[in-house]
Design goal:
It is found in: Secreted. This protein is mainly β. It has 5 helices and 34 strands.
């Protein structure tokens, strides 16, 4: 979507601050508001080498221009590089020393008071209900964050992969009905006997390291165990990757499916899954599509034939041009392949995205479910669209086919509907929406998500004195009318 043309409104400045990017790319983020409390956040980027000015030189000009908006009612013209016929200039750039604008990304956001985003639970560090014999010296809260979320009527399930040492339990549950914004204690699931690997007691019949899990229509939780310890440090595979199926009525494991070596690679890291009950049956008869992030590919499990096979395509690999991330001024590098994955039974496709890319792709479920690909088979991969920045989670609204995603740089949650091409910005919050690791649409009318400040955990500068981890839900009923159009998806 283009944010082209002009708008006349009485304005005043709310906030503005400097953000620094690599490769001499600088960003100013300023917010203006009109009398109707419609907020516009604009991110201005320029190339230092082409403008001849560094960030410190540009600061006075930008602030002077922003301050001028307080005093006058004037026409604000916003130009977007999504409109090729237009020059890349923002009205008033003469006050900015005629800098050469690479792009302007304008996110039209509702005022904070009108954006409803419920913080269900939040933690500085995760707290576990530890057994009495547990050695507290084995716990490293600064290494423990969640990446997986599943919600039932009475419980919320969380997955905490063993990215580094000191994670007490890799799968846990908390009550769903807790006080809003509370920090409940996590209980290991199904119980502590399955999580001995945190204490060096490796038992491959237990649960080693889980990134995500999914609920089927028979109230069974499918848990994808990567079998890999300390994946961010020395990447130690201690057990075969497996699917663990748990009956939530009894909290008992009813099935364990070990993935065969033929579908794995030495660097395989199984991180995400979707359950397809639309082709050949429900529950035990379903297909399961799993993402392999470190040895990029999609692994398929057939519940009826009890067989698995693998698909690989260049679109599942990370793009080196998108391996650098910047979240609120904190930069890091991570070359992760396919991880975000979602399924549309109605359209018969699986959407997927590597972490290190700005693109979303799809592949037909008919292709995935028919069996192993031929040696030279051309996969019918479709390019779905281009995002404003990298993202991790994908989720689909099964009622209207809306696809939800979360651009990391923009600390926002947005949506796109492939049937109507309608785009919406659902939420924007530079503090609460840092690195959403999971998005989950639920039929209760909410989009749930995990916000993690992963960059701080990754860079080892996470603070115990601030909120780092949140479970958030965004109400969707009526949001299609109240949400504003975004240009985060091209």
């Amino acid at each position: 979507m283009c944010c082209c043309g002009s708008t006349k409104m009485s304005t005043y400045v709310r906030t503005y601050k400097l953000r620094t990017y690599k490769l001499k790319l600088w960003t100013y983020n300023y917010t203006i508001s009109d009398s109707a409390e419609n907020v516009t956040t604009c991110i201005i980027m320029w190339d230092e080498s082409k403008s001849g000015c560094d960030a410190n030189q540009m600061a006075p000009g930008i602030l002077k221009w922003a301050e001028a908006l307080r005093e006058s009612e004037q026409e604000i013209t916003i130009w977007s590089d999504n409109c090729p016929s237009q020059d890349h200039y923002l009205h008033g750039c003469n006050m900015l020393l005629n800098i050469w604008i690479i792009t302007t990304l304008c996110i039209y956001v509702q005022s904070v008071s009108s954006i409803q985003m419920d913080v269900v639970n939040q933690w500085n560090f995760l707290d576990f209900d530890l057994p009495y014999h547990f050695d507290y010296a084995d716990i490293r809260p600064e290494n423990t964050l969640f990446t997986g979320l599943e919600i039932t009527d009475d419980r919320i399930f969380l997955a905490m992969p063993r990215l580094r040492a000191g994670v007490p339990a890799t799968l846990a549950a908390i009550p769903r009905n807790t006080h809003k914004g509370s920090s409940p204690v996590l209980r290991a699931y199904p119980d502590w006997s399955f999580h001995g690997s945190s204490r060096g007691e490796v038992n491959c019949s237990g649960i080693i390291s889980v990134y995500r899990m999914r609920l089927d229509s028979c109230n069974k939780l499918w848990v994808l165990d990567s079998g890999v310890m300390t994946s961010l440090d020395d990447f130690t595979r201690v057990c075969q990757p497996k699917l663990i199926v748990i009956d939530l009525f009894t909290d008992q494991i009813v099935r364990t499916i070990y993935l065969p070596n033929g579908v794995l690679r030495p660097a395989s890291l199984m991180t995400n899954l979707v359950i397809d009950e639309s082709i050949q049956g429900r529950c035990d008869s379903a297909f399961v599509y799993m993402s392999d992030t470190a040895a990029p590919g999609i692994v398929v499990y057939d519940g009826i034939r009890d067989q698995a096979w693998r698909f690989t395509h260049p679109t599942m690999f990370p793009d080196p041009n998108f391996s650098d991330y910047n979240i609120n001024g904190e930069a890091f590098t991570l070359m992760d392949g396919v991880v975000g994955i979602s399924h549309s039974p109605k359209l018969g496709v699986v959407y997927y995205q590597p972490l290190a890319t700005d693109r979303i792709f799809s592949i037909p479920t008919a292709t995935l479910s028919k069996g192993p690909p031929g040696e030279f088979e051309r996969l019918p991969i479709q390019f779905v669209g281009k995002k404003s920045s990298q993202g991790l989670g994908l989720s689909l609204n099964l009622l209207d086919e809306t696809l939800y995603f979360s651009p990391l740089t923009e600390t926002s949650v947005a949506s796109w509907n492939p049937l109507t091409n309608q785009q919406k910005l659902l939420a924007y919050d530079p503090e609460k929406l840092q690195f959403p690791s999971e998005l989950r649409w639920k039929s209760d009318g909410y989009l749930w998500l995990l916000s993690t400040k992963f960059q701080k955990f990754f860079l080892r500068n996470v603070s115990p004195h601030e909120v780092n981890l949140r479970i958030i839900r965004i109400p969707l009923r009526g949001r299609s009318k109240s949400a504003v159009t975004n240009n985060l998806f091209i």
